[in-house]
Each structure stands twice: as structure tokens, then as C-alpha cells.
Amino acid sequence: MQQLAIAFSLMLILEGIIPFLYPQRWRNLVAKMSEINNRQLRYAGLASMVLGLLILTALT
Question: Domain of 6?
Fold first, then answer.
């Protein structure tokens, strides 16, 4: 359970870097993402999950 909490904490830190450093660029990116259709957004989410799984598998 502790490792899961550590992983979640690291994810939050990494997710927060871009909005902290470049808030206007982040706002523009979010606005552009709202224009993407659901199918493309789902494929991007799937690609992200598969990439994360591959990296995790390679590291363990």
C-alpha cells in the first residue's frame, strides 16, 4: 500500500510541473484538448496506459 501511495504522489508531482512552470501554455493545451473528439482522446489515453505498462514491465 505504501508503494502505491508513493507512485500516486510521484504522479501528482509530475502532473503539476507543467501547469506550475507554464500556466498559460497549459491553459492553451487544455483548451485545444477540449476540441479533440472522444475517439482520439481515448486512443491517446490507451497509448499512455500501454506506454506506462511497458515501462513498468521493463523496470521490474
Answer: 2-59
